[in-house]
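Translate structure to sequence.
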């Protein structure tokens, strides 16, 4: 009862507060949650996947426009096959559920590094939901911040080479905006708020370029235990801050 009252109080206060357009979430702590419960890693990953559906409903209700979910880093791809394979199946099933749930799905990451079936599921989700309106869900799979920047520069070079631009000419005009046009999230607002669960207080390369001016909220709960009240607290803390871009 007290929890419900507190949740309702937070919701009321946020009704007139500023809401972040774009929220990035580092879904951390699935394996530790499973270990604490005496279960297998894949049980933690599945519990974390189930929590995603709740987060998206909370975000849509709050008026958030974009949510980026970091599901699998490029470093995670080197995990033992016995753990990686079940995790990829869970991710594939989750992406399919997002499509069935009516969400607009956009893959974010080095798709070429992923197994063919995982890459196929991500591409199919983007193709099937690209025309939908409402909340945009970036699914970061095989994602690394440094890799994204390298891919953006590579894409920029290829684009200008196709136009016949010389390296000397490109060096004269290349700037931040040119690189940003080739990021995985091009055309989207940068994250206003980044949430990381499990008590870790670092970004680990998450949206390295885009988070230059983001606000951060670190939550002690493992991702499967993340509650609506934890999400509302993150929004409340964001609303209280005076953002100073570039300072």
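Result:
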């Amino acid at each position: 009862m007290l929890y419900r009252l507190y949740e309702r109080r937070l919701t009321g206060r946020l009704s007139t507060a500023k809401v972040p357009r774009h929220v990035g979430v580092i879904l951390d702590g699935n394996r530790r949650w499973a270990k604490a419960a005496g279960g297998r890693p894949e049980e933690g990953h599945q519990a974390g996947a189930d929590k995603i559906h709740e987060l998206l409903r909370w975000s849509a209700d709050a008026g958030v426009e974009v949510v980026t979910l970091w599901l699998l880093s490029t470093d995670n791809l080197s995990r033992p096959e016995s753990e990686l394979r079940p995790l990829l199946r869970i991710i594939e099933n989750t992406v399919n559920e997002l499509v069935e749930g009516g969400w607009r799905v956009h893959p974010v990451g080095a798709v070429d590094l992923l197994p063919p079936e995982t890459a196929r599921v991500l591409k199919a989700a983007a193709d099937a939901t690209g025309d939908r309106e409402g909340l945009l869900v970036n699914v970061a799979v095989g994602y690394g911040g440094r890799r994204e920047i390298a891919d953006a520069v590579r894409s920029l070079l290829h684009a200008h080479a196709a136009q016949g631009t010389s390296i000397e000419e490109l060096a004269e005009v290349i700037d931040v905006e040119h690189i940003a046009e080739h990021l995985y999230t091009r055309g989207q607002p940068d994250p206003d708020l980044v949430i990381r669960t499990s008590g870790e207080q670092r970004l680990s390369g998450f949206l390295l370029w885009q988070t230059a001016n983001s606000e951060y909220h670190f939550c002690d709960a493992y991702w499967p235990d993340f509650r609506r009240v934890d999400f509302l607290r993150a929004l409340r803390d964001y609303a209280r801050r005076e953002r100073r871009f570039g300072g």
